[in-house]
Design goal:
- The protein is mostly helical.
- The protein has 8 helices and no strands.
- The N and C termini lie far apart (79 Å).
- The site of protoporphyrin IX containing FE (HEM) has 24 residues, from α4, α6, α7 and α8.
- Keywords: Heme, Iron, Metal-binding, Transport.
C-alpha cells in the first residue's frame, strides 16, 4: 500500500495515525508485553511493580493527549508532567535504551508506516534522555558536608 504523506505535528494527525484510542491501546499493550518478556529489558522491568496494569492504563491516557487526541491523562490523573511522574524512577542508560527499544519494536509490530515510527521515536527520545539526565543528577555523589564533630 502506498503511504499517504502526513504532517504528524499538525492537530490530531498523530492521534489519527496511531489509530485513535484502539490503536494506542494495542501499541501500549504490545510495548508492555515486550518489556515483560525481553531479557534485554529486565533492568527496565524491575523498575516497575509486579502488575503492569496501572502503567498500561496511564500510558494509554498519556499518549492520547500527547498525540493530539482527548486529554485523558489530565482528566483522570491531573496535570502531572513526565518529569514529575518519573522523579522517583532510577533511570539508567540501560533501562532508557530498553524503553526505546521496546517501543521501537512495538511500533514495528503494530505495522505503522516507517515515517510514523521515526516521528514517534524522535519524540520519545527527548523526554527519555531528560529522565536519564535527571536520574543521573539525583544519583551524583553529594558534596561533603563540613563535619563539626572534631571541633
Ligand atoms: C527513560 C526510560 C523510562 C523508564 C525507565 C520509565 C519507567 C517508568 C516507571 C518505573 C513507571 C511507574 C510504573 C508504575 O508505577 O506503575 C513509569 C510510568 C510512566 N511512564 Fe515511564 N519510563 C521511561 C520513559 C518514559 C517515556 C519516554 C514516556 C512517555 C513519553 C513514559 C511515560 C510514562 C507514563 C505516562 C507513566 C505513568 C505515570 C503515572 O504514574 O501517572 N515513560 N515509567
Amino acid at each position: 500500500m502506498t503511504e499517504i504523506p502526513m504532517d504528524y505535528r499538525i492537530g490530531d494527525n498523530a492521534y489519527l495515525a496511531a489509530g485513535k484510542q484502539e490503536g494506542i491501546e494495542t501499541l501500549v499493550n504490545r510495548f508492555y508485553d515486550l518489556m515483560d518478556s525481553r531479557t534485554d529489558a529486565s533492568s527496565l522491568r524491575q523498575l516497575h511493580p509486579d502488575s503492569l496494569d496501572r502503567a498500561r492504563q496511564r500510558l494509554v491516557w498519556f499518549l492520547s493527549g500527547w498525540l493530539g487526541g482527548p486529554a485523558l491523562y489530565q482528566q483522570n490523573v491531573g496535570n502531572q508532567s513526565l518529569a514529575m511522574s518519573h522523579a522517583q524512577v532510577a533511570v539508567t542508560r540501560d533501562s532508557m535504551q530498553a524503553w526505546l527499544d521496546c517501543m521501537s519494536q512495538a511500533l514495528q509490530d503494530c505495522g505503522y508506516p516507517q515515517s510514523f515510527h521515526d516521528y514517534l521515536m524522535h519524540r520519545f527520545t527527548t523526554p527519555a534522555h531528560s529522565m536519564l539526565m535527571m536520574a543521573e543528577y539525583q544519583a551524583r555523589p553529594t558534596s561533603t558536608t563540613p563535619s563539626f564533630s572534631a571541633v
